[in-house]
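Hi all, posting the design record for the shared folder.

TITLE: backbone redesign
STEP: 1 of 1
STRUCTURE INPUT:
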């Protein structure tokens, strides 16, 4: 601010100096112009008065006597003296007009008399000796002025005339010139008929043009062989045919028995009531997608109940095909999948996003998390890098937790890491939890094979390991426990790796802490989870299962609770048997089962709880209808 003020003061001082210099120059100029005028104004004025008086006096005395200095006759003298006086007056007038100029101011009275001619230097202009009736006169002071002439156009005058404003009403039309009523009607009729004929002609012309246009459109356009080949080979045509054929196949997939006999409806219902309740509804298989591949995981869409997604491993007989495949099947499109996605490695886990129905998330054998979009192409739109910042071992568990506006993807791998990711940014995990158990012999890492969260729980979870034990883990520090693995409370009962872990759905609050585990030791076990808010134990303790289901003849790969019935769950084993268990009816044996003849790796219930999707080792996805077993009865509550 001080610097700015100094600059302003300097500018003001400079401006004042310029103004002072300008006033000084103006004052000097005025003195230069006024000094000669002031010194000689009085002398010039007296000389001019004398000159004018002498000229006027000579002109008055001219008729009485001739000029004393002239020669010749008196007539000639008067003429000559008149000519001389006129010339003298003209010279004096011109000299007086130019008094304001520098030349006039510089002239002396003698010079001025010489210019007039005949008036000697030093003489004065006065009246004649004989007397002057007019007396002496003073010479007026002449000044120069500037004038600007404006030329204004004359104002236009508008004159109104009565003849213009009024019509001549003196003459009246002749009665003979008026039209009769019949003549008026005839003329109106002719005008109407002319309009009708014009309208009819326009309508006929429009009809003719429309007929010609339809004829041109109906003409069959013949394509050349080159045009036909270019259309058939274009990608747009192939996409159009693929999309529209899907629509037609969905429309034709109508599950309606048009040969039904309504007179035998009661007998048919009675036969169905006594028959098998769980039956195969449809199956999905495509040689381009699932040939020589196994189904590794299944998941239904929460937004579209007819869509189910399946993950496949690599095909050892086709090294040029993608290692991993993901297919989205539609229950109304049985011959081919709705979408097909590719992966650079075997896809072990897959699921739809709970908050975006267009997003499919998968976990790969290489440790990458892949994200596909149904609106994009077959390749992943996002994927995690192959760096030490994420997983470096196969991912066997994925879970989306949170709400619509704030949700995260949790992944667990056999490298003992649980990572939290943002679905729109897979460059690096948001947080990483290392699960380590100090009691392990060779390494502290815990090889996680499955993971699940209880209902309305986003921090505490249960993990199943390859050693056959399950542990509770926390994402954050909480009262009585730290973040990481709780190694003192162990759910130890299996003697082989745990293949799946499933918490009870939130249909009954009393059973929200129950979960099932399946293992390669041919058993399925029912557990009650330790409350997450309870402080962790300070001494090692083993938690025993509530019940053991051992009616199996091979590895048990998966078990899932029914989403609508609190006491029903389904299991899949290596013999290909899909079993349905109802704990209210039998705790030892399943109430219904079907055998597909091939090992079943995964199963998934649809949201209404009426169908089960089972994935086999041969790449076939089978959809089973469970019938009334999924409907809760009053005695089940």
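Okay, here is what came back for every position:
SEQUENCE:
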């Amino acid at each position: 601010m001080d610097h700015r003020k100094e600059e302003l003061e300097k500018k003001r001082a400079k401006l004042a100096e310029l103004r002072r210099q300008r006033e000084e120059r103006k004052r000097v100029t005025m003195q230069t112009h006024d000094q000669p005028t002031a010194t000689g104004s009085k002398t010039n004025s007296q000389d001019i008065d004398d000159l004018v008086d002498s000229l006027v006096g000579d002109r008055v005395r001219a008729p009485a006597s001739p000029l004393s200095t002239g020669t010749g006759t008196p007539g000639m003298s008067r003429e000559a003296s008149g000519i001389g006086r006129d010339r003298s007056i003209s010279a004096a007038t011109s000299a007086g007009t130019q008094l304001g100029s520098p030349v006039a101011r510089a002239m002396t009275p003698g010079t001025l008399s010489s210019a007039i001619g005949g008036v000697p230097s030093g003489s004065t202009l006065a009246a004649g000796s004989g007397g002057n009736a007019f007396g002496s006169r003073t010479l007026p002071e002449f000044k120069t002025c500037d004038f600007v002439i404006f030329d204004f156009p004359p104002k236009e005058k508008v004159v109104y005339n009565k003849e213009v404003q009024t019509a001549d009403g003196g003459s009246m039309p002749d009665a003979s010139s008026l039209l009769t009523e019949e003549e008026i009607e005839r003329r109106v009729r002719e005008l109407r008929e002319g309009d009708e004929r014009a309208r009819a002609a326009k309508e006929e012309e429009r009809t003719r043009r429309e007929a010609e246009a339809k004829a041109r459109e109906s003409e069959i356009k013949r394509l050349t062989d080159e045009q036909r080949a270019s259309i058939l080979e274009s990608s747009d045509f192939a996409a159009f045919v693929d999309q529209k054929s899907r629509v037609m196949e969905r429309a034709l997939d109508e599950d309606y028995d048009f040969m039904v006999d309504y007179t035998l409806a009661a007998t048919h219902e009675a036969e169905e009531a006594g028959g098998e309740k769980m039956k195969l509804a449809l199956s999905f298989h495509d040689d381009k997608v699932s040939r020589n591949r196994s189904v590794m995981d299944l998941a239904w869409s929460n937004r579209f109940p007819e869509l189910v997604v399946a993950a496949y491993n690599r095909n050892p007989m086709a090294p040029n095909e993608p290692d991993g495949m993901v297919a989205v099947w539609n229950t109304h499109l049985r011959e081919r999948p709705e979408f097909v996605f590719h992966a650079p490695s075997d896809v072990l886990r897959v699921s739809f996003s709970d908050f975006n129905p267009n997003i499919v998330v998968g976990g790969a054998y290489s440790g990458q998390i892949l994200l596909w979009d149904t609106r994009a192409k077959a390749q992943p739109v996002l994927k995690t890098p192959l760096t030490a910042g994420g997983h470096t071992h196969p991912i066997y568990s994925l879970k989306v937790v949170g709400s619509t506006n704030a949700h995260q993807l949790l992944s667990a791998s056999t490298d003992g890491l649980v990572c939290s990711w943002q679905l729109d940014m897979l460059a690096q995990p948001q947080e990483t939890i290392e699960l380590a158990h100090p009691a392990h012999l060779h390494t502290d890492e815990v090889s996680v094979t499955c993971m699940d969260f209880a209902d309305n729980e986003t921090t505490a979870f249960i993990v199943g390991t390859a050693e056959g034990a399950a542990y509770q883990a926390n994402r954050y520090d909480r009262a009585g426990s730290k973040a990481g693995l709780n190694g003192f409370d162990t759910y130890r009962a299996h003697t082989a790796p745990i293949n799946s872990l499933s918490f009870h759905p939130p249909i009954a609050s009393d059973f929200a802490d129950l979960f099932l585990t399946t293992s390669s030791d041919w058993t399925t076990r029912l557990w009650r989870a330790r409350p997450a808010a309870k402080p962790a134990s300070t001494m090692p303790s083993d938690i025993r299962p509530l019940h053991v289901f051992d009616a199996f003849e091979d590895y048990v790969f998966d078990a899932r609770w029914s989403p609508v019935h609190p006491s029903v769950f389904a299991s899949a084993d290596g013999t290909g048997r899909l079993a349905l268990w109802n704990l209210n009816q039998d705790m030892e044996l399943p109430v219904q089962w079907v055998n597909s003849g091939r090992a079943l790796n995964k199963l998934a219930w649809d949201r209404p709880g009426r169908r089960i999707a089972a994935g086999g080792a041969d790449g076939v996805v089978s959809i089973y209808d469970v019938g009334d077993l999924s409907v809760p009865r009053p005695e089940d509550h």
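COMMENT: The first strand starts at residue 279 and ends at 284.
Let me know if anyone wants the other runs.
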